[in-house]
Every structure is written in structure tokens, then in C-alpha cells.
Amino acid sequence: MIFLEEEGIKFTVPKTVFYNPNMQFCRSISSLAVGAIGDKLDLVDAFTASGIRGIRYAKENKNVKHLTFLDIEKSAINAAKKNAKTNKVKADSKHGNISKLALESTADFLEIDPFGTPSPYLLDGFRFFNPKKTAYLSITATDVAVLCGGKTAACMKNYHSKPLNNEFTHETGLRIIIKKIAEVAAEFNMGISPLLSFSDKHYLKTVIMVKRSADLAYKSMKKLGHVSYCRKCGFRTSSQFPQQCRKCTSATDYAGPLWLGELHNLAFLKKMRKINQKRSYSEKGQIDHMLSLLENEIGLPPYYYNIHALSKLKRTGDVPKIDVIISRLRKNHKAYRTHFSNVSIKTDALYDTILEAMEWKS
Ligand SMILES: C[S@@+](CC[C@H](N)C(=O)[O-])C[C@H]1O[C@@H](n2cnc3c(N)ncnc32)[C@H](O)[C@@H]1O
Ligand SMILES: [Zn+2]
After folding, report:
1. How many CB atoms neighbour CB 68 within 10 A?
2. Which residues contact 55 (CB under 8 A, 6 or more apart)?
3. CB of 53 shorter than 6 A to ligand 1
4. Would you say the CB of residue 350 lies under 6 angstroms from ligand 1?
5. Where do the DSSP E strands lie in 236-340?
6. pLDDT in tens, 207-257
7. Which residues pair with 347 in a beta bridge?
8. What share of the chain is helix, strand, coil (3-state, %, to 5)?
């Protein structure tokens, strides 16, 4: 048995139950998202383990009206119940496989935090939302090597999309998960609206609002497409279908189908930042920094430019400082740092303009 404390919650974790202290940041930022939703929530913390996530969500947010733990392991359910009691949090619990319990459960907010891919649980997840008109899905994926890398076969198998092993692979990986969510949502006549999405350490996270409407479901499907990338010259673009390089006319590599819509909602992120200011999380500063980077990503193309990778492809010699490149681009364009990588830029400038700002000489 291990005795632990996370953001003021004291709890114990038996040896057979999972707990990862490195996910504290993820739990804190997700708890802010729960608070920013504002509506009263019937929240199911599926994949409960020690219960720390659900307990924090309920203890930190007044709008959580009802909490249910759900886990396939009896030892996890017992630990979560004990930890809830210690922290004076009321919770119901369900012991069993989410696939079995989905048909007899409902939720406004469902947390899906399995080991590895969330993909096999999406269909079950959407069953929790019947007959809700609006609901919230919070998903964590730790199969980053599959989504963001060279494991094409595994990604095609689990997500029905081709990944792209290149300098902006973390964004395409995140967009591939959201595509899969949009597809499953559409089968339930629901449209999706990502509120918060990010890549951090060894995981990808997204919190999505879903609304029941055949029209919205179709609108979401129309936001799926591909990102094309020229390995020869570094050109990239997004479109419904993969495209040839418009710069050197080579055949491109591509990722997709993936989500080409927004990854976040600006008003939602602002609300989260406001709530964060009132909390005393140990990672308050890092959370605010992350949220500010996410805010700036809204409205920009679904990929970024890693200046070191680009420089390796296009020129020799020193690369100008990232802030210098950004300020040059900002004369006529939007240009920001991105949370995906601290040596990368998100911008609406065209490729040639970026190369010019990097002082590339052909
Ligand atoms: C990664 S841990 C969850 C961590 C937890 N959410 C946290 O923040 O500390 C995954 C948990 O899901 C449970 N689990 C795995 N497969 C499941 C299934 N099919 N249905 C329900 N629970 C499952 C495991 O027993 C384990 O406790
Ligand atoms: Zn090219």
C-alpha cells in the first residue's frame, strides 16, 4: 500500500492498483475543463484505478452533481471507494468491463483513460450518452508511438488512418484520434466540438463536447481530410484528399484521414485560465503557459513548422532565433509558438514567406 497526496487529496493505492504521478498535470488541467463546462454533470470516471481523477473532479468542481467509479478490477473499485470516503466525496461504483456496463449506464461527462489506445472503447463510450442531447467526452491516449510515428500498420488497424512520421507528427496524431471520435459520434447522430486538446510527455488528451443532431454529425464528417508533406522540400498543406507538392512537384507523403477542424474552443480555454487563477495547483504556472499557447493555435493551419528540421532540409549555417522568425512573419501574418514543440511555429504564412523569414537562400 502506498500513501500519497495530490493537490490536497490524501489517498492510498494498493500495489495491484495503477497510479502514475506523472499524470498529475493531466488531471489538473482536465479538472479545470470540468469546471469550465459549468453545467451540472453526472460524471462517470471509467477506468477509475485509485479514483484520484474522479475524486479530484468532484472535490474541485461544484458542478459535478454525481460521480460514478467504473473499473474492471475489484481492487481498484475498493481503493476508489475508500479514497472517496477519506476525502468526503460521495460516489457510486460499478465493477466490470465498460463494454458490458455501457448499455445500462448514462453520463453527461465520461472519462476514458485506459492503458494505451482508447479506440476500442469509443463505441461503448457513446452508449453512455443515450438519450442526452449534449455530453462531454474526455479521452487520454498513451499509444503515442502508434499515433505519432512510424507504426503505420498499427495506426491503420486501430484508427483507420495513416500517421505521418515527421516533424509535426504530434499534431497529426492528435487529429487522428479526434477523427476517430468524430466518426463514432456521427454513427450516433452526434456532432463534435473539441474544447481542449494537447500533446504532453507520453500521452495525447482531448476533451470534446458532443451534440445530438444528424446535421452536426454530417458537418463534423465534412471537417475530415488529409495533411500532405513533401519529404524532399518540406512543403506541407491540408485538403480533403492528399495533394502533390506545390513547391517542387514531388509526390508527397501524407497523414489521414484526420480532423481538420479546430482543436480547442477559445472561450472555453479563457474560462479554464480564469478558474486556474483561483486555484493553487502546484503546476499552476505550467498550466497557464500551456493554455496560453493553445489559445494562439486557434485559427491556424493543422500543422506546424519545426525550424530546425526545416533548416536541415533547406540551408546550412545558423538558424535565426525563433522569436526573430516569428516577429518577421507577424508583419503580415499570424505567427505563434506552439505547445507541440518549443522549436516550432504555427503560422498562416505561405511556405515561401516562412523560408524568407528564415533567410533561406536557394
Ligand atoms: C491507466 S489506468 C486509469 C488511471 C486513472 N484514470 C488515473 O488518472 O489515475 C486504467 C484502469 O482501467 C481499468 N480497465 C482496463 N480495462 C478496462 C475495461 N475494459 N473496463 C473497465 N475498466 C478497465 C484498469 O483496471 C485500470 O485501473
Ligand atoms: Zn516538395
Report:
1. 21
2. 9, 11, 67, 80, 83, 84, 87, 89, 91
3. yes
4. no
5. 236-239, 253-259, 305-306, 335-338
6. 999 999 999 999 999 999 999 999 999 999 999 999 999 999 999 999 999
7. 335
8. 40, 25, 35
